[in-house]
Design goal:
By secondary structure, the chain is an alpha/beta fold. The chain has 13 helices and six strands.
Length: 327
C-alpha cells in the first residue's frame, strides 16, 4: 500500500540534493518522520539525526507525559545514541494537554534548533499534531458556556455516544478521532456549533509555516503492519505495561483527562477496574491500535507533500537522506 509519492531511487545522480547538503544553508531544514504506529519512525529519526547532526522533537501527544514509557513505545535513553530529544517527560499524567499548547512548545523547540544551526527532526504519528507544528495553523476560538455544556453531556452520555453525534455531523472528523477521546470529540462538536461548519472544514490549507520542510513517511503494507502492531502490544505486556499503569494510577492517571485515554493505558485501566480480563484488555489494545493505524493512513495519505519510503528498505536511511523536496 502506497500513499503520496515516492522519492527517486538513490544513486550518484541524487548526491547534489541531500539533507546533508541542505544543512549548509543559513537555516537548516525542518525534517519530519511520519507514518503509522509500529512503522519504525523513532529508529529512522535517530538514524537521520545522527547522520546530519540533528536533534529529535517529539510529536507524540502521549510521550510528553512522565512515566508513560512502555505503552507509548518511548525510546529508552540507551537507544537514543546520544541524540538530544525534546518534548519528552514534561507533564504529570493528571495534566490535560491540547494541540495548541503542543504547537507552542514544539515550535519553540524548532526555533531553538534552527537558531543553533541544528536540524530539527520531528517524529510522530498524529497528523493533526504534525500539521499544527509544520503548517500555518491557527485554532478556532472557544466558548466556555458551549464547552461546559458539551462536557456535561460527555459526563452524562459517555464518549461513544458523543462520538456517534459527531459522526452524524462530521463523518471525516469522527473518522480521525478515537471514540474514547472524549475531550477531542467535545472540541470538534464545539467548533461545529460555533462556526456552523464541519470541524474538518476549519482546518487550514496545507501551507508550511517554514521555508524548508522535508516530510518522510514510512510505508508498511497493511498485513505486515497488523502483525507488527500485535507483536508490539504483546511486547509491551512482556515489558510490564500493566505494572506501569498501576504505578501511574497511584499518581492520578485515571483522573487525567488526556493521559487516561491513551491506547493501552485505557484498556489496562479497564482491566484494573474489573471491567474486563487482562487478556481482553490486551486483545482490545491490538484492535484499537490497528483502527488508529488506519486513521493515520487516511490522514497522512491526504498530504501529497510527504514522500513515502518502504519501511524495510535495506538503504532506508540513504533514501531518506537523498530526498530534498526542491529536487
Amino acid at each position: 500500500m502506497v500513499v503520496g509519492h515516492r522519492a527517486p531511487d538513490v544513486d550518484s545522480r541524487t548526491t547534489g540534493a541531500t539533507l546533508t547538503a541542505v544543512r549548509q544553508s543559513d537555516q537548516p531544514p525542518v525534517v519530519a518522520v511520519v507514518g503509522p504506529t509500529a512503522a519504525g519512525k523513532s529508529d529512522l529519526a535517530v538514524d537521520l539525526a545522527v547522520r546530519v547532526g540533528g536533534e529529535i522533537i517529539n510529536a507524540d501527544s502521549m510521550q510528553i507525559y512522565r512515566g508513560m514509557d512502555v505503552g507509548t513505545a518511548k525510546l529508552p535513553v540507551a537507544e537514543r545514541r546520544g541524540v538530544p530529544h525534546h518534548l519528552l517527560d514534561l507533564y504529570d499524567v493528571t495534566r490535560p494537554a491540547t494541540v495548541a499548547e503542543f504547537q507552542r512548545l514544539a515550535r519553540a523547540a524548532v526555533a531553538d534548533c534552527r537558531r543553533r544551526g541544528v536540524v530539527p527532526v520531528l517524529v510522530g504519528g498524529s497528523a493533526l499534531y504534525v500539521r499544527a507544528i509544520l503548517d500555518q495553523f491557527e485554532f478556532p476560538g472557544t466558548d466556555p458556556q458551549v464547552r461546559a455544556r458539551l462536557s456535561d453531556e460527555l459526563a452524562e452520555y459517555g464518549a461513544p455516544a458523543m462520538h456517534a453525534r459527531l459522526r452524524e455531523r462530521d463523518p471525516a472528523a469522527a473518522a480521525a478521532i478515537l471514540p474514547t477521546n472524549g475531550r477531542r470529540v467535545v472540541r470538534a462538536l464545539e467548533v461545529i456549533e460555533l462556526t456552523g461548519r464541519p470541524f474538518t472544514a476549519t482546518l487550514p490549507p496545507r501551507r508550511y509555516a517554514y521555508d524548508d520542510v522535508v516530510q518522510i513517511g514510512l510505508d508498511v503494507p497493511r498485513p505486515v503492519l497488523d502483525e507488527r502492531i500485535e507483536l508490539r502490544v504483546r511486547r509491551m505486556w512482556e515489558l510490564g505495561l500493566v505494572d506501569e499503569v498501576r504505578r501511574l494510577e497511584a499518581q492520578g492517571l485515571r483522573q487525567g483527562p488526556t493521559a487516561s485515554r491513551a491506547l493501552g493505558y485505557a484498556q489496562v485501566l479497564a482491566f484494573l477496574a474489573g471491567e474486563c480480563s487482562e487478556q481482553e484488555a490486551q486483545d482490545e489494545t491490538v484492535r484499537a491500535t490497528r483502527r488508529f493505524a488506519r486513521r493515520q493512513h487516511a490522514w497522512f495519505g491526504k498530504d501529497e507533500r510527504i514522500t513515502w519510503l518502504p519501511f524495510d528498505a535495506a538503504d532506508l536511511v540513504e533514501q531518506a537522506l537523498a530526498y530534498d523536496r526542491r529536487s
